[in-house]
Amino acid sequence: MLAAVLHRLGEPLSIEERPLPQPGSGQVRVRVEACGVCHTDLHAIRGDWHAKPRLPCTPGHEICGIVDAIGPDVAASRLGERVGVFWLNRTCGQCEWCGVGWETLCPNQINTGFGVPGGFAEALVVDADFAIPIPQTLIPLEAAPILCAGVSSYKGIRETEAKPGDWIAIVGVGGVGHLAIQYARALGLRPLAIDVSDDALALAKSLGVERTLNARTDAVARTLRKDLGGVPAVLMTASSAEAIRLGCELLRRRGTMAIVGIPPGDFQVPTFDIVVKRFTIRGSIGGTRQDVRDALDLAALHGIRAKVETQPLVAVNDAFARMEAGSVAGRIVLRPNASAPA
Ligand SMILES: [Zn+2]
Ligand SMILES: [Zn+2]
User: Fold this and answer.
1) 253 C-alpha to center of ligand 1: Å?
2) Ligand 2: distance of its center to the CA of 328 in Å?
3) Least distant ligand from the CA of 111
């Protein structure tokens, strides 16, 4: 099979022939129909974080495909099933975090396309328990971006503890942000969008946000404090310290900001406001298997769709280059088996 493989951090991926993996006990093999390209993949191949991918590495963790082989101890009914594979590839099921439904925090977790081969390939194997059935009304190109960008935005919104009817400021209208707007609406919230690009804000408007503000040209914090008294919830998808500072300025008393992007360095927190106005600033990392099921169901039910651009597997390095240049609108989705139906 063909796979895009990283041999050394910071180098381009090489498109090469690899042995077709065989599912072991409790595993399924997934023939990849679609795999989204996420910023996490870009950070991983550049070696940006203290955690590094295991080399050689086949990235990709936004995977939709068909089960085409099963190992021993897997129900035969799973053959032919359309499934999603996401960042959590395996958790221990034994630790205190797994025990309380917080498997995203499992210290023993293994990550798809990072610790084990991912979806920038024609096929991969995964534990059957981590191959999530895809609702029948979603096609692969729609489902793939939900597996990371979608679930990250859904979970991040939940982490703000916003209630139906609440305003929520979505800061950054990119791959995650444009899905977050749709999830916020599906959850009965009132999203407003903040970005520095008028094109991004036009996209936000087309997705039904009531208000858009340009952080470069509008006095965003002053305007929202004057009009709304601040907002109870901020979803921070932009990954700069400057954006996070702005997010803090938008909150009203008891407000919560959930951060889903990782800025390159640390940022300062407004300690006085956090104490006196009882702000909460909280990180949110991906989602659990149940979060993924919920995010997929909501997408199917409410017509939540990522703006996607499809590319063949061989275009993966070009996709990363454009991502680095910030010239991707929505999500690039690779189709490693180009003959598979969209
Ligand atoms: Zn991702
Ligand atoms: Zn665990």
Assistant:
1) 32
2) 35
3) 1
Q: How far is the CA of 62 from the centre of ligand 1 (A)?
A: 7
- The CB-based long-range contact list for 251-255 (8 Å cut-off, 24+ gap) reads 251/277, 251/279, 252/228, 252/277, 253/277, 253/278, 254/278, 254/279, 255/230, 255/231, 255/279, 255/280
Specify the CATH architecture of the domain 2-148+287-334.
Answer: Alpha-Beta Complex (3.90)
Ligand 2 centroid to residue 38 C-alpha, Å = 24
Q: From the first residue on, what is the mean pLDDT of each consecutive set of 10 residues in the chain (342 residues)?
A: 97 97 98 96 92 96 98 98 98 98 97 98 98 97 97 98 98 94 98 96 96 96 96 95 94 97 82 94 96 98 96 96 87 85 46
- What ranges do the domains of the chain cover? 2-148+287-334, 150-283
CATH 3.30.70.20 fits 150-283, yes or no: no
Distance in Å, CA 277 to ligand 1 centroid: 33
Q: What is the pTM of this model?
A: 0.95
Distance 56 CA to ligand 2 centre (A): 25
